[in-house]
Amino acid sequence: MPGFFTRFALTTAFALAGCDAVQGQATRGDLATNPRLEVAAGAHDVATESEALRLVPIVDSFEFPWDIAFLDERELLVTEKPGRLSRVDTTNGATHPIAGVPGVEFVGQGGLLGVEVDPDFSENRLVYLAYSILLAPDARTTRVSRARLVGDRLVDLEVLFTAEPARRAVNHFGGALAFDRAGLLYVSVGDRQARDLAQDLANDLGKVHRIRTDGSAPDDNPFVEDPRAHATIYSWGHRNPQGFALHPETGALWSAEHGPQGGDEVNVIRPGRNYGWPIISYGEEYGGGKIGVGTHRDGLEQPLYYYVPSIAPSGIAFYSGANPKGGGSLTSWDGDLLLAALRLTHLNRLVLDGETVVREERLLDDLGHRVRAVAQSPTTGELFVAIESGTLFRIEARREVASAAPAP
Q1: What is the pLDDT of residues 336-380, one digit of tens each?
Q2: Assign residue 105 a region: left if phi > 0, alpha if psi is -120 to 50, beta otherwise?
Q3: Contacts of 342 (CB under 8 A, 6+ apart)
Q4: Structural domains in the chain?
Q5: CA atoms of 278 and 290, how far apart (whole Å)
Q6: From 44, 172, 230, 369, active-site residue
Q7: At a CB cut-off of 8 Å and minimum separation 6, what does 102 contact?
């Protein structure tokens, strides 16, 4: 679609880099010197193997958008890595900055990351944020806080979780958030480039944590009776999970995790399981070389699906096309898992049969921009994606647009 998008040199450089190198390393200076995505007034048509789609720009003024969470059928929240949170009206693109956001350190892969709203948001107005902070000189970590959204301001900020130990490294913060059906909050923390700590239950790094909304550990967490372990740990042996989604039928937590050079993973997160990093991996060391013992070892979980070469998955979402609660219009995608891909710049669609991937489709790769987040409205079923260069899009079924036109 000539003229619709302007590709810039940084995109090409990122696409040729390894998995870690494409997780948002640009600085404020980089952003200032590279042209922002040019968005035309009209929509962008997209052909897929099963659906004719239309990509409609909603807002094109974000700086490093990272995550999306819906407030109601019209409005959603968007986090930006430099430390901004915005409320967006999806019907007209009106964007309102939110005051009172906690201070973050925008460095490397860190900044303001995941956002979730409380399951009882309509009553309590609680919003949850994951972000990186500098606790001391050269001591950074992942933190989760909650606050009440009053108008366009966060008030009554409470710190719920701070990953230990803090480290000098500026990558692998994790930052994914998701609520389960019991109202418990899952938090991902990457290995912070200290890979062996992912195999040690006496620290928080390289783990998925499960907490109550006050930050305490549920009594049935798998390691609450283990004196060696941190009680909030739910699963371990992770490298850097950045995407969470709850399966619409089973309620199980699924995750997308960055591998090293190759070996990105989709996992179903089960309590107490060890997902193997860095003992096993389908990736390799940067520059080549086997990691750990190879791809398998008894007692360690296999990924449900893995990518070689890496696609650098970030946000993920299940599509509920035929589900009345979802109300989506892309019915042939019902039950599929969608992954935002930073490397190879596309939206990844996995067609599922239970916990088996039947086939994979790569969408929107002609845009040439790193897809950071994907989310479906739980009330209207509308699907939204955010690209890292600053634009929030709505994805529509093109047949619906065509059907609205009068017959010739």
Answers
A1: 999 999 999 999 999 999 999 999 999 998 888 999 999 999 888
A2: beta
A3: 14, 22, 23, 24, 311, 312, 313, 314, 370, 371, 372, 388
A4: 9-403 (2.120.10.30)
A5: 11
A6: 172
A7: 129, 131, 133, 143, 145, 147, 157
Tokens for 368? Answer: 């040439």
State residue 354 phi and psi, 5-degree precision.
65, -120
Q: What is the pTM of this model?
A: 0.89
How many residues would you count in the chain?
Answer: 408
- Phi and psi angles of residue 175, each rounded to the nearest 5 degrees, phi first: 100, 5
User: Could you read off the pLDDT of 169-179 as tens digits, one per residue?
Assistant: 999 999 999 99
- Decide if 172 is catalytic: yes
